[in-house]
Request: fold
Amino acid sequence: MVKKPTPLDMPGILRSRIFGIAKAVLFLLAGMALYTGHSKSMSRLTPRDSSVCQGVISAAAREKARSWALNIQLDNGARIVTYIGKSKSDPDGQQTDIKAMNVGDTLTVMLKHVTPTDRRGDSFDTYRRRLMNRGICATAYVPPHMWRHKACKAPLTASMSANNLQHVLHNIYEEHDIDGEEGSIIEAMTIGRTAGIDQQTRTIYSRAGGSHLLALSGFHVGIVMMMLLLLTRFFLQYRTVRIATNVSIIAAIWGYAYIAGMSPSLMRATIACTVVLSGHILDRFVKPFNVCLTCLMIMLCIAPADIFNIGFQLSFLAVTGICVTSNRIEEECSRLHRGLRIMANTVAISFVCSLMTAPVVAHHFGCVPLFSVVTNLLSVAFVYVIVCGCALWWSTLWIDPVNNVIGSAITWAAKTMNTLMEWIAHLPSATIELRPDTTTICIYYLILTIATYKILQKTKNRNIQKWFDNTQKI
Reply:
């Protein structure tokens, strides 16, 4: 029989639970204080209308329908999204001048309109908070000729250097004919550059339930980690060099995350891989749920405003669902043949992720994709081909015949996946138009929590009874 806690053990259990609750409350209060201070400082840094601002370009220019969007960072640390109106008299000359701008150059602009921070209204406040959570003080409009560019390199921050490096890698892709719609998908899945993806493609992936494939996350980082472990498998067999090998893999994963832009989902996956590999170095077993909570606390300590980021929310909701149900899924799938087991495991995990993220997706986007499980099942092979194929493509960059063959293969995979997404997105009833309020979302997660607890408790009791029956037979 299972030993129940004795009265002597109860004070220790109680102290452990009180300590855990105290930690949670402490982190909550610290996060509230940090976020409040961050909001006040952001409001003070916002520039005024009709003022001259000089800052450093922190990201490459993006072409819009009526303007060019540039991110600039002022001397006081404020970040502004600046929209330069398109010139009607000399559009070609303006395009040439704007494309000549590089990250780190100085830009002086005469602001015609800056989004105010003291206006009231639900829709505006929501938009303003969204900007502040991304570290942006305001959006500003600049007339077509009221700006001046100076090509003097300022000291680059980490994010500026990453954006600059992404631009260099983008140019290499284009030089080798990996461009267009397929090239933008390949860039999004490998270097995290999503600027080339048009709104129509984003809508198709969203309706098909595959928008998470365009944002680097644990799936993509897991493939990179798997390739690194396979390449260093020989060294991991020897204890003397195992520590150095694991440290090298951690450094390589962080380097990849830096190049890919350090998005919240990518940061979560990178921190999780670091914790897991650190456990291997120390010969310690790490529990998935503890790894998830560790990532959550570290990321919120670094950037408390990330908790309002849609990518942050979806990433941790999906991973929490996987951590809670992974053991039950593996237990149920263990009776199947290996091929069927892998397929059933993929379907079950996709279904759990869809259940966990559906209310948040509906709240932010106003629709819920119904075929996300089918999309995940059909797109897994294409994602593996693209990510692993691009690793081979970069390693054979100087061998033209091999490089061209690999480039054709990954381009075909991206094109086929786009066709598949478009077909799924246009199926009848591909999405449900729905936008639940906060109360409905809370009720949904409360019911889901109770149902999950009941199922897991039933599984636990069944395992205890099975262990007891085996013990009786012995």
User: Anything to note?
Assistant: The chain is about 65% helix and 10% strand. The longest strand covers residues 67-74. Strands lie at 52-57, 62-63, 67-74, 79-85, 106-110, 113-114, 138-142, 147-150, 367-369, 431-433.
